[in-house]
Design brief:
It is built from twelve helices and 31 strands. By secondary structure, it is of the alpha/beta class. The strands form eight sheets. The protein has a seven-stranded mixed beta sheet with strand order 3-20-19-4-7-8-9, with helices on one face. A hairpin with a 2-residue loop joins β10 (238-241) and β11 (244-245). α2 (139-150) runs parallel beside α4. The radius of gyration is 25 Å and the shape is globular.
Amino acid sequence: MQPSVPPAQDVARPSRFLLAGAFVTGLLLVLHGGCGNQECVNAFDCEEANPAPEGQGWTCVEHVCKAVIPQTPPETDAGTSTDAGPHDDGGTAATVSVKVIAFNDFHGQLEPAGGTGGQIITSLLPDGGAADRVNAGGAVYFARHVADLRAKNPNTVVVSAGDLIGATPLLSALFHDEPTIEVMNQVGLDLAAVGNHEFDEGGPELLRMQAGGCHPVDGCQDGTGFEGARFKYLAANVATGPDRTFFPRYDVRTFEGVKVAFIGMTLEGTPQIVTPSGIAGLTFKDEVETVNALVPELKSQGVGAIVVVVHEGGMPALDSLYNECKGISGPILDIAQKLDPAVNVIVSGHTHQAYNCSLSGKLVTSASSVGRLLTDIDLTLDAKTGALTQVQAQNVIVTRTVTPDPTVTEQVARYKGLTAPLEARVIGWIDRTLTRGDILKDPTGQATMGFVIADAQLEATKPANLGGAQIAFMNPGGVRADLVRDPANPSDTGSITYGEAFTVQPFGNSLVTLTLTGAQLERLLEQQFRPGTATRILLPSAGFSYAFSASAPLGSKVDPASIQLNGTTVDPAASYRVTVNSFLAPGGDGFTVLSEGTNPLGGAVDADALEAYLTAKSTEANPLPAPALDRITQLP
């Protein structure tokens, strides 16, 4: 018997902050020296910014460029077809065909993504660079491709492997991701495993996504009711008690008398990458143990084929194309190896990669991210025993050359029309322009916009239950625009809209508070200074200051005695709670010292922290003053 969905009152109330997800550790990769770790949408952004040395390449995980050295691939079955194992049909038994259409990490990308983030590489040059790319994605095309695939087989199930919502563009995020749920209803999504981002606004809000109803604070902003998801969320390894899960563990579908089970779950490490308030009362269990414990139960129901839909994945080699699995590494290898042989297919996600192959006798797939690919999986089942006799899959590019789905086109256009007034909502006031700064013009790297962001992040994580932060640092590359006030224009009141603030921080990073020693803080500051023009000055929060010598050698530029917190010299042996965003936390921008931090605690989305700060600290009569540029001092 599948557990019922717990009542909303059994889970903590939702946070007003939208958590953005997760920083992914470099454990999936072999890190290589050299510059890297800049912000990105995908690996091609990294390559365009920093061409990789011979033998090295780039990959992009959660907006973080990671330098990698391709490794020898593990033993895998070649191709995209695999036998499910021993079976005896005597060569005469009839079969049943079932199609599974799968995708992952959609992240509310209703409109086509721009640049390389909206493309799929279809061939490579001899040196490993992209030879051909295809524009891909966009909900209106996504819906059409799903419909075309579904038309090929009446026995079709459409599944999502997590992060359907959360860390979404403004078009979806402004409406608490209701637009994405409604579009997926139209697409015909059947089953969705929860991902870490599904918990961005907390457990009760995710329950609302399933059950419907207006937002408890903002109501139904589009002027109509919200019916909730017509599809079913699954959460096999998200427990609310000894014998209860947040959503059902699995769903069993019967096709022409043959039963196929779909088990859905997120990664066990979800608590490390989401805000604690969003998952209060929930326990995230081991993926393999969860599935293997369910196998006897499913077999007792006459299930012959099992599909695991899990928000965890792997990292293929740099020269692996979207329908390959070259050099794949990461958690998915261990999961595939240890899952019960009764599991036939693993639909994976989380790493935003594309792959399709057989691992440990199981078909394993992932469809990139933001709706650029769909995985077309065909199961052939023995009509008498229900056993899987053959499985094959192909990642299909969601091209933009098909006829757009008219209903989805209308839905997206309606929300675009509603976005303008919400985007124009005033959230604060400034007394003068806050600038991004320019390290080439100002060697200290100080910037009023960056300082305000750091101050906002410190404020958001200062309470003990939210991190107990004493210091916050903002990376300069994450500040994407100025907030402008025109002093020559008497009608410019210095008002700041939500859309303007979102433009300043569009990455949707979450805040992470961790512990560093004073000695580690000094090393962190030294990592700002690099050969040539590669210097990247972190922007500290108010109360933290230091001095550096421009003429001193690399590694010795910062005067330890000058590093102060609220007027007191930092003690190398003491511990300090430091907040950064989820781009920096795993060592982004080359700040590898941060990856040594202990006791990490996830927090709010950076843009939400900025909004809260501007709202709390300014009014039209008393706008927020620009911070003084006195936190970093340059010495000869």
